[in-house]
Specification:
alpha/beta; 7-stranded mixed beta sheet; HI1420
Length: about 290
């Protein structure tokens, strides 16, 4: 069964990276329905890409009567914000509705936008997978639970945290442990269904392990660290930090793009996520 994907992002993102395009191609090839906003920036860039691909399984959500952008002339879903709502909250009304309607989300982030990160929170609160691509440093966060959300939140700037709290509604910001609906934070679908739904955007551990092996074979240390960081974030950086005895913030930095972790750190993280490094003799053909 095809899923509904909420695709959104920051207004300051006007060009899509190759990583984002690859994710969009996965959605297109799988025939999933897309719900997207009408804003300038990432919304408009995604609309342009889908329109040029002649993809018609798209619904544009807008707050109010008229969308700011609808490049593919798709169906429009008008959202009526609460009376008297202005500014950020006026446009957030459509985001909340898209998060409710979607099965999972893909967010394109400029590393600063609070609105984009709030959409991740809305999805996670509803027990849905959210993939956050930071186009500034080319990192990807696969956030599947409130624990992983808290991990992510602990590493953002105090300014962004304050902005998030100011913009979120009390229900959105409410800590998981204080919620009377904590069961909504975990998906009610069978594990196999969750994996099938998420595999379009969240590589499995086996796929990431294969990526590490390929990077090792190619002698590409940056690719090794990128894949290892993705596995660590998928497992939850708090759990990895607990098993390795290393600081969570330090792990985030060293396993992100441009990170340069010590070899001992690499070994500890691999052990924490159930991987091990083996050396094999390289066979080469001798010239006659």
């Amino acid at each position: 069964m095809n899923s509904t994907v909420f695709i959104g992002g920051s207004r300051h993102v006007s060009r899509l990276s190759e990583k984002v395009k690859e994710r969009l191609n996965n959605v297109i090839n799988s025939g999933h329905r897309v719900v997207v906003g009408d804003a300038n920036g990432a919304d408009k860039a995604v609309q342009k890409y889908l329109s040029e691909a002649h993809y018609d399984k798209v619904t544009v959500f807008c707050s109010g009567d008229k969308p700011r952008n609808n490049l593919g002339h798709w169906h429009i879903h008008h959202i009526t914000p609460p009376k008297g709502t202005k500014g950020f909250q006026f446009y957030a009304a459509k985001d909340r509705e898209m998060a409710r309607e979607a099965d999972f989300g893909l967010m394109i982030w400029d590393s600063k936008s609070a609105g984009t990160v709030l959409n991740v929170l809305r999805l996670v609160r509803a027990g849905k997978i959210a993939v956050l691509i930071n186009v500034s440093d080319k990192t990807t966060f696969n956030i599947k639970s409130t624990a992983q959300w808290e991990d992510f939140l602990s590493c953002v700037s105090p300014k962004l945290r304050a902005d998030l709290r100011e913009r979120a509604t009390p229900d959105e910001w409410m800590p998981a442990e204080a919620s009377s609906q904590h069961n909504l934070f975990e998906s009610c679908e069978p594990e196999s269904a969750v994996h099938k739904r998420g595999e379009l955007t969240v590589p499995s551990d086996d796929e990431l392990a294969a990526a590490i092996n390929a990077a090792l074979a190619a002698g590409d240390p940056a690719a090794v660290i990128d894949a290892l960081g993705s596995i660590a974030r998928a497992h939850g950086m708090s759990q990895v930090a607990k098993h390795t005895g290393l600081a969570r913030e330090s792990l985030y930095r060293s396993l992100s793009a441009g990170g340069n972790p010590e070899f001992a750190t690499v070994l500890k993280v691999m052990a924490a996520v159930g991987l091990r490094l083996e050396a094999n003799k390289q066979h080469t053909d001798n010239a006659a």
